[in-house]
Design a protein that fits this description.
The complex is a heterodimer.
Chain A (H helix, E strand, L loop, with lengths): L2 H9 L23 H12 L3 H37 L7 H50 L2 H6 L2 H43 L1 H48 L1 H6 L3 H27 L1 H25 L5 H42 L21 E8 L8 E8 L4 E5 L6 H8 L7 E6 L2 E2 L5 H6 L1 E4 L8 E2 H5 L8 H10 L3 H5 L8 E2 L8 H15 L3 E5 L7 H15 L3 E5 L11 E6 L2 E6 L1 H7 L2 H19 L1
Parallel strand pairs in A: 3-10, 3-11, 6-9, 9-10
Antiparallel strand pairs in A: 1-2, 1-4, 4-5, 7-8, 11-12
Helix pairs in contact in A: 2-11, 3-4, 3-6, 3-11, 4-6, 6-7, 6-11, 7-9, 7-10, 7-11, 10-11, 15-17
Chain B lengths: L11 H35 L2 H50 L2 H7 L1 H26 L1 H16 L4 H45 L1 H6 L3 H53 L5 H43 L21 E8 L9 E8 L3 E7 L5 H7 L8 E6 L2 E2 L5 H6 L1 E4 L8 E2 H6 L6 H10 L3 H6 L7 E2 L8 H13 L5 E5 L7 H14 L4 E6 L2 H4 L4 E6 L2 E6 L1 H7 L1 H10 L2 H4 L1
Parallel strand pairs in B: 3-10, 3-11, 6-9, 9-10
Antiparallel strand pairs in B: 1-2, 1-4, 4-5, 7-8, 11-12
Helix pairs in contact in B: 1-2, 1-5, 1-9, 2-4, 4-9, 5-9, 6-8, 6-9, 8-9, 13-15, 18-19
Classes of the chains: A alpha/beta, B alpha/beta.
Chain lengths: 623, 575
């Protein structure tokens, strides 16, 4: 079955970089499909923290109010100074001023302190949510059927665990503190401005939407170039990836020049779209700054006029200048918050989608305790298909006695690996049943069932760690001597010792620092150490050369003694001594028997077997 | 850091223009409060509305001048920074393309890909930020200080004090968070790693019931990442309000002390107002500066990684000049006492190998996994250079050939069949100047013609990246066709028939036999049956040459060969 191999192929895809960080003001904004629904689910995660959140909101509102009050107070001082000089011949009421100064100091202390407290709370809430989301995803891993991982890109799942959750926590932290403070600030500043001068407030409020209008237009315009830039960058990176991965071939066939030529073309395209998008996004600050300056001029001129006509005081101009700033800031932030929430929702949507995937049926409560399993296995009228309409195994029935060596042969796609998937309950049968010592495997706990088998698969799996850790993975309590013995039996010791660090050699993250043959030797050593009552060898020696295979074969023969073993192999020479050979074609067992019996039958198997020798004799003629 | 700036060299005058324009823009912004001061000091007391309007007009003019300068500066700087990253990308990629496999082993392919892509992008962001903020912020700060001193000389000491305080807070922030961020990256990597393990090992984890084991590993990584996030978040939650607090308190102090100065008529009220605004401006600039400082460490890492690549000279170099006319070569390959050790390996992969492969002969190399067969093949086209000993082609050391010409002499079919996105034709042609006829002939020999003709678009059939849309056997046949083109003098087949079915393989071999009749053929395999008729068979075992001769000789004289053969052949065939 090719399904089995999919995982590793797709695994090597590069992980996409982090999505828009909090500081990125202009980037492609991802849109969620169902904003409301996703937000509702996110809010559910907030529920346990409602008390903290309310406290944080109160602190945020209070600190913002302090912040809004202070410019007015400063303005009062300026007014007192101005009036004192101009109208009271230098009589300035310093007691009045010092009282305001004291108030200001208190306001500022309160503002900062509350701000800190609020920051602490929202930080810890969002990090806890991040932790919980990650944990939930990791737990979910174990409950999902293998089908999910066989049909989804690993890189995509990975990016949900890391990037998406990172986006959620970062933006959560940001928006938790910003939303309340922004709203409070807009309302508070409006009130203060109206108190000072409704006329000036009116003028300022006309200018503000102008800013947001300009910003939205700019964002819309630049999206086009951003998309182009993103696309060009993708093309360029794709080219780099492809060329560097095929470096050997490129070198041997002198392809560097053409590769560089193509690269230059792509690089040039990227340059063209990149400076445009950079320029447009770079306009944001100047334009908002300019509009802010126009507001500043308007306040100065109108303020001057209003002071002259005795409608406001000099200090009010000063206060107003600060208020316009305070007003502009949250207004331009609201656009940012909207975008932030959008990308939060998009990220959260992907995470929730994963968390909502259909799970494996949990082990039923009436599971049979399994002890002293002998290893009689029977398939009773089993049918199965990966997708609903294509069945791969049809009405299959076999009896296998304990201790027998069962070989499964057949052409590619005949359903050999599928049998193993069913036996291990990586997938469940569609109809019929599989029994071990008469117990339906669906009545066993999955963990118990799998403990019965030692497995060596075509795809080996090793993790980042030492060779020793990898071998003793199934039996962490094994002593160094046990590990070494297993390695010797698996013929792995030679390469382990020649690798420099011996058993302490560290397998890198991609497990690319050892060959595929060596990986299989390690997997065999691991299984030897695990010592399970039954064995599954699925193309266990496919990546090992024939000479080493003979050596391992001895170890495997030892291993298989008194154990029910299932062997899937392409090379028919390796299964000659199996007790039962099952020949599978199109999901059905078409022949069954020992090597000799099957050869006598002169059927499918014998054709398969003799074609190998046929091959050899014709080959020698050819060259 | 400075080294990377060489890529900006040609555009240095543009950078200066950006600097001048940014300065003009900063000054324009800074003049606004001083006009406001004029309105308060002169316009309001005299009630001179026309004067106020006039000043207002001036302010608008200055603001307009400011934005014009800024837009032009942005225009130039975005071009400069894009050009800059274009140049870096260009030279990094060219450099990497010049690397031999040794450098690829040293850096690892994945890391080289990241360096060519992510790291360059990171540097571009950094430059962009610098041109936008890091230039204007200090200018605003310096200009603001000059203006502030003009308006309230006696108050300047407060400025110095609070600027020092802000710098101290920023420095503290820098010192505390930068190492934390570095640690954060490694924590994220750890989490990634565990997750990838979980994904790729799903079957094995379930088979070994190791879910709890993996969950604990994940939880450990998760906890330490969350803890670090919490700490960094708290530091940020304190430091940011702290700078704002310093700014606010400074204004209060200025107002307090300024009041007495106003009272004894040392300064005017408008000047005090302007001064306060300058103070705010200066502090704001300092904050901006601190933001740019935050991205420096990240950019430094990328710059270092890119510089590492740029500073690496490929170990395999073309000879300075080579006058060898390769059209006269016939293709005798000779290994003379060749040894090879991979960098950092303890054991040599090849030890003291000597043999000669002649034209019109089939030289086979057999040996178990890891015996050094592919390594040996890699040495001939100089993908690696031998650590000891030399390789000769027609008596000339391969190091004296022009590398391009040397490789043209060789038709190489690697073990892993790598195809590139493009068409079938472009994959066979591989940018060599050859006729369509030759492409068709090559595909006929490699038995690819048949399936190519079945495709609707024939030779223009699209090949996806990595050749994912053709089968393994088809890939292999295309890979062979690619090597046949140009009729090289030396053929190297590295386990090249493994994905072919018997029927195709035998047809291919017959056709190949005719094609390669005047060439040296080196065939690497694990299958004895393939090479029983070879003119000479070289048996490798753990990097040593343990036998050389014909099938019959070796069966008698070479234990290793006998073991291999007896594992594959029937008893009758062994005789």
């Amino acid at each position: 079955m090719t399904i089995q191999n999919k995982g590793t192929d797709k695994f090597d895809r590069p992980i996409p970089g982090p999505r828009g960080g909090p500081r990125a003001t202009m980037k492609l904004v991802e849109k969620p499909k169902d904003f409301k629904g996703t937000m509702k689910k996110l809010v559910k995660y907030l529920k346990p923290y409602w008390f903290l959140l309310i406290i944080s909101m109160i602190f945020s509102i209070a600190s913002t109010i302090f912040n809004v009050l202070s410019p007015r107070q400063m303005g009062l001082i300026t007014t007192e100074l101005y009036l004192g000089i101009m109208e009271k011949n230098g009589q300035i009421d310093f007691i009045y001023i010092s009282r305001i100064i004291l108030l200001l100091v208190l306001l500022h202390i309160g503002y900062s302190l509350f701000h800190v407290i609020q920051g602490f709370i929202s930080n810890s809430v969002s990090q806890k949510i991040g932790y919980k989301l990650r944990k939930n995803m990791a737990d979910k891993f174990n409950r999902l059927p293998l089908y999910y991982f066989d049909t989804n890109l690993h890189g995509d799942i990975l990016s949900r665990v890391t990037n998406d959750i990172d986006t959620i926590t970062a933006t959560f932290n940001q928006s938790l503190s910003q939303i309340t403070s922004t709203i409070t600030q807009i309302i508070g500043v409006m009130v203060m401005m109206l108190i000072i001068s409704p006329l000036m407030t009116g003028v300022t409020i006309i200018i503000v939407p102008l800013t947001s209008l300009f910003v939205t237009v700019l964002v819309k315009k630049s999206q086009k170039y951003f998309k182009a830039q993103q696309k060009n960058l993708g093309n360029l990176n794709g080219h780099v990836e492809e060329m560097l991965s095929g470096h050997l071939v490129l070198k041997v066939f002198n392809g560097e020049a053409r590769s560089i030529e193509n690269f230059s073309k792509l690089n040039n395209e990227l340059y063209k779209s990149s400076w445009k998008s950079q320029f447009l996004s770079g306009l944001m600050m100047p334009v908002t700054g300019f509009i802010g300056n126009i507001g500043y001029v308007a306040v100065c001129v109108m303020g001057g006029y209003l002071v002259v006509s005795n409608n406001i005081q000099v200090g009010d101009i000063q206060a107003f200048i600060r208020y316009v700033r305070q007003f502009n800031h949250p207004m331009s932030q609201t656009a940012g918050i909207a975008n932030t929430l959008q990308s939060t929702a998009a990220a959260a949507e992907r995470v929730f989608q994963f968390l909502n995937e259909m799970e494996e049926k949990p082990d039923s409560d009436e599971c049979t305790d399994i002890k002293d399993i002998k290893g009689n296995v029977s398939f009773n009228d089993v049918s199965f298909g990966y997708s609903n309409n294509v069945s791969i195994i049809k009405n299959l029935s076999i009896e296998i006695n304990a201790g027998q060596k069962v070989a499964i042969v057949g052409p590619t796609g005949a359903g050999k690996t599928t049998l193993v998937n069913l036996l291990m309950r990586f997938y469940d049968v569609d109809s019929g049943s599989i029994k071990i010592d008469g117990i339906d495997i669906r009545n066993m706990k999955r963990n118990d069932l799998r403990n019965l088998f030692g497995m060596v698969l075509q795809d080996t799996w090793l993790f980042n760690g030492t060779l020793r850790d990898n071998i003793s993975y199934s039996n962490p309590s094994a002593s160094d001597e046990d590990v070494q013995r297993a390695a010797v039996l698996a013929c792995a010791e030679h390469f382990i010792l020649s690798s420099g660090d011996g058993y302490d050699m560290i397998i890198n993250e991609e497990a690319s620092n050892i060959s595929s043959g060596q990986k299989q030797l390690l997997a065999i050593a691991r299984t030897i150490l695990a010592d399970n009552p039954m064995l599954i060898l699925d193309e266990a020696t496919s990546n090992v050369d024939t000479r080493t295979e003979i050596l391992i074969q001895k170890a495997m023969d030892n291993l298989m003694q008194k154990r029910t073993s299932f062997i899937i192999a392409h090379r028919l020479s390796t299964i000659k001594n199996a007790d039962v050979i099952l020949v599978i074609n199109n999901g059905e067992i078409i022949e069954k028997g020992s090597h000799i019996e099957l050869l006598k039958k002169n059927g499918f198997y014998s054709k398969l077997y003799y074609s190998q020798f046929d091959k050899i004799s014709s080959e020698s003629k050819a060259l | 850091m400075i080294k990377i700036l060489r890529f900006i060299k040609k555009d240095w005058w543009k950078v200066i223009i950006v600097l001048v324009l940014t300065f003009a823009q900063s000054m324009a912004n800074l003049y606004l409060p001083s006009y406001m001061s004029d309105i308060v000091n002169t316009g309001i007391p005299s009630g001179d509305i026309p004067y106020i309007m006039k000043i207002g007009g001036l302010m608008l003019g200055v603001a307009f001048l400011g934005i014009t300068c800024q837009i032009v500066a942005r225009f130039i700087s975005s071009k400069v920074s894009s050009k800059f990253s274009y140049a870096i990308r260009d030279s990094v990629f060219k450099k990497v393309e010049s690397f031999s496999l040794s450098e690829f082993d040293r850096f690892s392919t994945a890391s080289l890909i990241t360096r060519c892509t992510n790291d360059v992008t990171q540097i571009q962001h950094f430059l962009d930020m610098t041109l936008r903020m890091a230039i204007s912020a200090p200018m605003m700060a310096i200009g603001g200080i000059i203006m502030a001193i003009r308006y309230g000389q006696s108050l300047s000491w407060i400025l110095i004090l609070s600027c020092t305080a802000i710098v101290a807070v920023m420095g503290l922030n820098f010192l505390i968070t930068v190492p934390k961020f570095k640690k954060m990256q490694s924590n994220i990597d750890r989490l990634n790693l565990v997750t990838r393990e979980n994904l790729s090992g799903m079957r094995v984890i379930r088979a070994f019931n190791a879910q709890n084991n993996q969950n604990k590993k994940f939880d450990d990584a998760n906890i330490s990442l969350t803890k670090l996030h919490l700490v960094i978040g708290r530091i940020n939650a304190v430091l940011q309000p702290m700078t704002i607090f310093i700014m606010n308190i400074t204004t209060v102090v200025v107002l307090w002390l300024g009041s007495t100065l106003v009272a004894n008529l040392s300064i005017q009220v408008g000047d005090l107002m302007a001064f306060i605004q300058y103070v705010m401006q200066i502090m704001f600039s300092f904050q901006m500066l601190s933001m740019t400082f935050m991205i420096i460490p990240r950019a430094m890492v990328s710059i270092k990684r890119v510089n590492d690549v740029l500073d690496t000279e490929p170990v395999i170099k073309n000879p300075l000049y080579s006058e060898i006319d390769t059209s006269l070569n016939i293709g005798v390959v000779e290994f003379r006492n060749v040894s090879f050790i991979y960098p950092n390996a303890l054991e040599p992969a090849l030890k003291d190998i000597s043999f000669t492969a002649k034209p019109n002969q089939l030289t086979a190399i057999i040996g178990s996994t890891g015996s050094g067969k592919s390594t040996l093949a890699n040495l001939i086209p100089r993908l690696y250079d031998a650590t000891n000993g030399d390789i000769f082609i027609d008596g000339v050391n391969i190091k004296n050939f022009d590398i391009k010409n040397l490789r043209e002499l060789i038709g190489y079919v690697p073990q892993k069949n790598i195809l590139f996105s493009g068409t079938i034709e472009s994959n066979i042609r591989f940018s060599r100047s050859i006729t369509d006829d030759e492409i068709i002939r090559s595909s006929e020999i490699s038995q690819a013609n048949e399936f190519i003709n079945e495709k609707y678009e024939g030779y223009n059939h699209y090949i996806a990246q990595g050749g994912l849309n053709v089968s393994g056997g088809q890939k292999q046949r295309l890979s062979i066709a690619r090597a046949l083109v140009g009729s090289p003098k030396i053929y190297i087949f590295d386990d090249s028939f493994s994905s072919l079915d018997f029927h195709t393989e035998s047809k291919l071999k017959t056709a190949l036999f005719e094609k390669t009749i005047n060439s040296t053929v080196i065939l690497i395999t694990q299958r004895v049956s393939t090479i029983m008729n070879a003119d000479q068979i070289i048996v490798l075992d753990a990097g040593r040459l343990v036998g050389i001769g014909t099938h019959k000789d070796l069966l008698k004289n070479c234990n290793v060969y006998y073991e291999i053969a007896s594992s594959q052949l029937t008893k009758e065939e062994l005789l």
